[in-house]
Amino acid sequence: MAYLKLYRDKLRHNYNFLDDLFKENDIKWGITTKLLCGHEAFLKEVAELGIGEMHDSRISNLKKIKEIDPDTMTTYIKPPPKDIIESVVKYADASLNTELSTLHALSEEAKRQDKVHKVIIMIEMGDLREGVVRENLIGFYEKVFKLTNIEVIGIGTNLNCMHGVMPDEDKLIQLSLYKQIIELQFDKTIPLVSGGTTVTIPLLLRNQLPRGINHFRVGEALFFGKDLFADGTIEGMHNDVLELYTQIIEISEKPKVPTGELGKDPQGNTVEIDEDDYGKTSYRAILDIGYLDINPDHLINVEDDVEIVDASSDMLILDVGDNTSGYEVGDFIRFRMNYMGALGIMNSDYIDKIVE
Hints:
The chain is α/β, with parallel strands linked by helices. It has helices at residues 8-24, 40-47, 59-68, 85-91, 100-112, 137-144, 169-186, 201-205, 220-224, 339-346; strands spanning 3-6, 28-32, 53-56, 73-76, 94-97, 117-122, 150-156, 192-194, 215-218, 226-227, 232-233, 242-255, 281-287, 299-301, 307-311, 316-319, 332-337, 352-355. Strand 6 (117-122), helix 6 and strand 7 form a beta-alpha-beta unit. Helix 4 (85-91) crosses helix 5 and helix 6 crosses helix 7. The model has no long low-confidence stretch (mean pLDDT 95).
């Protein structure tokens, strides 16, 4: 049976790398855990790193985090839907917000629960996902500061999450300036400028991050060591904290070209035949995962002698050439995954998850 393995030592190594980097630059940070889909064993591994601040986009996951470590500061990292406001206040110490009506609801619910709910106001900086339009920012903050049981702890933005807009010095300097303008306008202190995510880390490593950015929300770099500028791995970090182990359930020598009239496959595609493959054979290994678990495009080969052919709903097909490695039924083939691939695997109840 296929399983996902988390390597504890590699996770700790990546955490220490990031924690040292942020401490050297007087930056606070929290771990974004939405990749883990509330998996208790993996969340415990993250909690034991000692971060003290964890972010997620699902209330059930934040509830699990609070059960594991009630002292962890939890943040709901998207504008909260109105029908879960009660749970957001109950399980999230803070939330990212862009809508006044939602903030009113959070204030009223926090009053009912005898709490003060912390908020970071997200600003639209060009990627066109969530964020208050900059022209409306002063009026927006003026109304938010009047709310009881709401504490504004920061101003923030998300970049590269929708249209691939990359962070740069100009955008992040603008974000820092907005914080200063709001503080002067309303005689308030806003502690956090939350402009940092995995995509922003290369700017920090190149000393190109404006000093005003003092808060990061990081997931992908922790679990994959990802450098989103270079589309590679950050030097000194591991890219294989998570690995997928898949089991061979059939292996045999077969023609490389299908026979019969070709229609659309279950994904709606028509197979293109390479005429050079007519009459040729190779060994094909069938693995015990498929589209139900992960899109093959999100898999990264670890073994040199395998090639992903395609998948059906619950089987993945590999071409292993002449099978010089001697693969047999029951053997395991390892893969790394990109972020979206791991997210699918973590969300699959059919894949076991273990810690080593």
